[in-house]
Design brief:
Helix 3 runs antiparallel to helix 5, helix 6 runs antiparallel to helix 7 and helix 7 packs antiparallel against helix 9. Strands 1-6 form a two-stranded antiparallel sheet. A two-stranded antiparallel ribbon has the order 2-3. A two-stranded antiparallel sheet has the order 4-12. The N terminus is likely disordered. The protein is mainly α and about 600 residues long. It is globular and about 75 Å long. Belongs to the SusD family.
Length: about 600
């Protein structure tokens, strides 16, 4: 008994000594209530803002193309593969933005609540400029996350109303009422436009040190060049700017004007065209389309020379660059020591016209089914590794034929192609995966490319004013598509007769614009969302090619099992269970 008492006393002393480990002291908890920041500590609220930046999803590299008619994967555990095969449910949704976006919005709401109470720097004038800038960034980022929420979760309710998502603009504490109903799609768009307007009013068009005080925008008052540079100088490149805000407005308006959502709001095609047109006008118009923008991911000298936060001509906004070989490891063919994960489909290959610009299905195109890759749109071999194409640092010829005798052939091993094609776009061909001589190369991920905005404009302008309608900025859908195809080397020898024919018909131009968007933005995360906002067929079977004895034969590879209501994504099932005020989109359970 005496021994037990001693042991008990020892345990009590041990527990008492561990009090600091079990119960955190009050002073160790950072108080996020208004006005509670230490007087000279701007690091915490700025860190909260950075959390919003860190949650921005990057469309490219996620490869949701695997759930469309553009690609399949040999990774049998891929979530998008399961979506395509009929396993998309409200509680199995790798495309959900609900948790990520609302977490970001909570952080941004904290910033917006407290931004004017923080002493950002000791100079009160510069501190006020910092407050303006950070308020603009937080408002613009909040709009961006509401755009992502609408893209993934807006839809038509059982009653036929076009609904958005709950609008949360205040910080939610532990006692908040989280049972918030979904706002209408129109109300969500108004919130997005309001936040973007605030951001546009507060932010500079671009960050950069100025030559003199004469270049200070009037909205910042009477300040010195040094004060301006401290708040808006080159050191802040990469953060949200007025130019980026205008581009986000273009993206949101295009979604709102599209067939899937147009009945639920007042945004018109003309609005969407004007918003994109403003971005392009500031860039320099159609003539400013970057000549090397087609291969932005592989322009080695340009990428190597990038200063921190600086953008090449093709890129409007990007993340930080890094040296790695992850994409190549995942997607090089097995003969180059890769895993061959993303396999473009025959469907996508067929979307590339002939070099003369005429679709391969059209009489007079010159297409030869026995020599299917000859005289094609040059973008085909740039973006897709076809049979007999080259890849890797030594320009190795790759045979994807079923009887080609290597693991690169159709369905030979688990890392072989399932379609007869491998991904080439986004990959640096100067990466070496040979275990004896591996190397990394610099990569970056764009948030917004100018080509996307050009295509946004072409689509909206054609719908608003027809192929030749110039709108307020003086260029037309036809002008944009002509520039894009010319850059690609399409139709240059015959005056692009297919485009010239299309300019006489809004419907034909629509088909051409959508096809150009499919090609130019392939594997960058657009196709999945484009098919849905257009309300077109989602269930086209993914096809490939089997080549034996040098004879190609088209094969069916994988069905696409989408029901009609899957034009719209679901509200997460767990949220529906927790909150009775939330209404699910029609068809989802």
């Amino acid at each position: 008994m005496k021994i037990n008492i001693v042991i008990l006393l020892a345990c009590l002393l041990l527990v008492a000594g561990c009090k600091d480990l079990l119960v955190p002291e009050t002073e160790n908890i950072r108080d996020l209530n208004p006005g509670k920041y230490p007087p000279n500590d701007a690091a915490l609220p700025f860190g909260i803002l950075l959390n919003g930046y860190n949650r921005i999803p990057t469309n490219s590299w996620s490869f949701n193309d695997v759930a469309t008619d553009d690609a399949v994967t040999n990774d049998q555990g891929n979530g998008f593969l399961k979506i395509a095969n009929g396993q998309w449910t409200a509680n199995n949704n790798p495309l959900s933005q609900w948790t990520n976006a609302y977490a970001a919005i909570q952080y941004l709401n904290i910033v917006l609540r407290d931004v004017d109470t923080v002493r950002w720097v000791s100079d009160p004038v510069v501190s006020k400029l910092f407050a303006m800038r950070i308020k603009g960034e937080a408002a613009g980022l909040r709009a961006l996350f509401y755009y992502y929420l609408l893209q993934a979760h807006a839809g038509v309710s059982e009653s036929g109303a076009v609904l958005g998502v709950p609008i949360i603009t205040a910080v939610q504490g532990p006692n908040a009422d989280f049972n918030t109903p979904r706002a209408t799609f129109e109300a969500c768009m108004k919130q997005i436009y309001s936040d973007l307007s605030i951001a546009d009013d507060l932010l500079p068009l671009d960050y950069g040190n100025i030559a003199s005080a004469a270049f200070i925008p009037a909205k910042y008052g009477t300040i010195t060049k040094e004060q301006y540079d401290r708040a808006f100088g080159s050191a802040f490149r990469g953060f949200l700017t007025g130019r980026i805000v205008k581009a986000i407005r273009s993206k949101a308006a295009l979604l709102a004007a599209s067939p899937a959502f147009s009945a639920g709001n007042t945004t018109t095609w003309a609005d969407a065209a004007d918003y994109a047109g403003e971005v392009l006008y500031l860039k320099g118009g159609v003539g400013a389309l970057a000549s090397n923008g087609l291969t932005w991911y592989a322009n080695a000298s340009e990428i190597a020379g990038l200063a921190d936060g600086a953008n090449p001509a093709e890129i409007l906004w990007r993340n930080n660059y890094g040296d790695n070989r992850d994409l190549e490891q995942a997607n090089y063919p097995p003969g180059l020591f890769g895993n061959g994960r993303i396999n473009p489909t025959q469907n996508l290959v067929d979307a590339f016209p002939m070099a003369n610009g005429i679709p391969i299905t059209h009489t007079g195109s010159g297409y030869d089914a026995t020599d299917p890759y000859a005289n094609r749109d040059p973008r085909l071999r740039v973006f897709i590794l076809v049979n007999g194409g080259t890849a890797g640092p030594n320009n190795t010829v790759i045979s994807t034929a079923a009887d080609g005798g290597t693991n690169d052939g159709l369905n030979i091993v688990g890392t072989s192609t399932r379609t007869g094609y491998y991904l080439r776009k986004l990959l640096r061909q100067d990466v070496n995966l040979n275990p004896n001589s591996t190397n990394n190369q610099r990569h970056y991920k764009p948030h917004i490319r100018y080509t996307e905005i050009f295509l946004n404009y072409a689509e909206a302008a054609n719908e608003a004013w027809g192929p030749l309608g110039a709108g307020r900025y003086g260029f037309s859908a036809y002008d944009v598509i002509r520039a894009i195809r010319k850059r690609a080397g399409v139709g240059t020898a015959n005056g692009d007769t297919w485009l010239e024919e299309a300019k006489g018909s809004k419907d034909q131009m629509r088909d051409l614009i959508r096809n150009e968007r499919r090609i130019e933005l392939c594997f960058e995360g657009f196709r999945f969302w484009d098919l849905r906002r257009w309300k077109v067929n989602l269930s086209e079977t993914a096809r490939g090619v089997s080549i034996k004895n040098n004879v190609p034969a088209v094969i069916n590879v994988e069905p696409r099992q989408f029901q009609s209501f899957m034009t719209y994504g679901p509200i997460p099932y767990g949220e529906i269970l927790k909150f009775g005020a939330l209404e699910q989109n029609k068809g989802w359970r």
